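Supplementary notes for students who missed Thursday's class. We covered one full example, reproduced here. Read the sequence, then the structure, then the short commentary at the end.
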Amino acid sequence: NTDGTVNYNSITLGGDTYNSTTKTGGTRITNVARGVDDSDAVNMSQLNETNESIVNMGDTINNFAGDQTTEYTDIHGRGIRYVRTNDAGLELSDSSAEGQGSTAVGYNATSIGDSSLALGRESKANNANDVALGAGSTTDVAVGTA
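Structure (token representation):
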């Protein structure tokens, strides 16, 4: 304060006002200790650690759910690895549900026909409304429905 007293509710630092367009000006505070309590500020080291943790978490999520980037999911849809609904064009080892409303569950399971279900490793539902149940099972003719 101008009278020499300290205002503990605010701090004013000298220097140019920060310009967000040119990213110039402002005042840099250096030698800041690591924040500990909820009301403490964090320093750049702590922020970088958090960013690294988020990047590493992304790798874990991709291992569980497959590639979750927007570019990939716009083409292939979302799902847990080896479980896809109404999806196609995935890696060889992943399941693929190509038919409209179809579902494939299992390593390299594929449901090609509309409204078909392939359940089990290497199972394949070829026609509309088919159900391929069990590892290696393949349908050749659609099962009739009443």
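Commentary. The two ends are 86 Å apart (CA to CA). The first strand starts at residue 83 and ends at 85. If anything here is unclear, bring it to office hours.
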